[in-house]
């Protein structure tokens, strides 16, 4: 599904919340979960994906998908560098933002965004949630 840039930006900016308030477990090695989100007005569905490495525990990613399938925002920590479509190399940690015509193929240094400490998975999740306008995080474990 292709979105216009302003539509993607609006999806990122809309306030959203978890469909259920079950604890969000992010500290377990090898975790790969998806949690449903909904816009506060109930009009849009989203998904938060959480992945953590099995052996390299400092490697993890968070992703927000809009309309359940369109990757809007992703943060990658301690993985391989990313090569953008213009061949620029972006080391981790980095953030992918939806870009019309490219989906999530462009990455930017996370230092350009409000992320406090990528070595702390819980703080990064909190910062990611704030950046993506996710309200009322459930208990994080």
Could you characterize the architecture of this molecule?
There is one protein chain. The model has no long low-confidence stretch (mean pLDDT 94). The protein is of the alpha+beta class and 141 residues long. The strands form 2 sheets. An 8-stranded mixed beta sheet has the order 9-8-5-4-3-2-1-10. A two-stranded antiparallel sheet has the order 6-7. Helix content is 14%, strand content 33%. A hairpin with a 3-residue loop joins strand 4 and strand 5. The protein has 2 helices and 10 strands; from the N terminus they run H-E-E-E-E-E-E-E-E-E-H-E.
Shape: globular
Biggest β-sheet strands, sense, barrel:
8 strands, mixed
If you compute it from the alpha carbons, what radius of gyration comes out, rounded to the nearest whole angstrom?
A: 14 Å
Distance between the termini: 33 Å
What portion of residues belong to β-strands? 25-35%
Task: Tell me the layout of helices and strands.
Elements (H helix, E strand, L loop, with lengths): L4 H9 L2 E3 L13 E8 L5 E8 L7 E7 L3 E8 L4 E2 L5 E2 L3 E4 L9 E3 L11 H11 L2 E2 L6
Parallel strand pairs: 1-10
Antiparallel strand pairs: 1-2, 2-3, 3-4, 4-5, 5-8, 6-7, 8-9
Descriptive tags:
141 residues, eight-stranded mixed sheet, two-stranded antiparallel ribbon, 10 strands, 14% helix
Concise description?
14% of the residues lie in helices and 33% in strands. The protein has 141 residues and is α+β, with helices and mostly antiparallel strands. The strands form 2 sheets. The chain has an 8-stranded mixed β-sheet. The chain has a two-stranded antiparallel sheet with strand order 6-7.
């Amino acid at each position: 599904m292709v979105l216009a840039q302003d539509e993607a930006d609006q999806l990122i900016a809309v306030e959203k919340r978890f469909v259920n308030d079950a604890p969000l477990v992010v500290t377990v090695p090898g975790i790969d979960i998806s949690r449903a989100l909904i816009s506060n007005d109930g009009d849009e569905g989203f998904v938060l994906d959480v992945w953590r490495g099995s052996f390299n525990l400092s490697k993890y990613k968070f992703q927000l998908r809009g309309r359940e399938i369109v990757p809007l925002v992703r943060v990658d920590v301690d993985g391989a560098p990313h090569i953008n479509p213009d061949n620029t190399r972006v080391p981790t940690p980095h953030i992918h933002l939806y870009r019309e015509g490219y989906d999530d193929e462009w990455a930017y240094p996370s230092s350009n965004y409000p992320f406090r400490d990528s070595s702390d998975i819980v703080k990064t999740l909190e910062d990611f949630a704030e950046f993506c306008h996710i309200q009322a995080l459930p208990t994080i474990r």
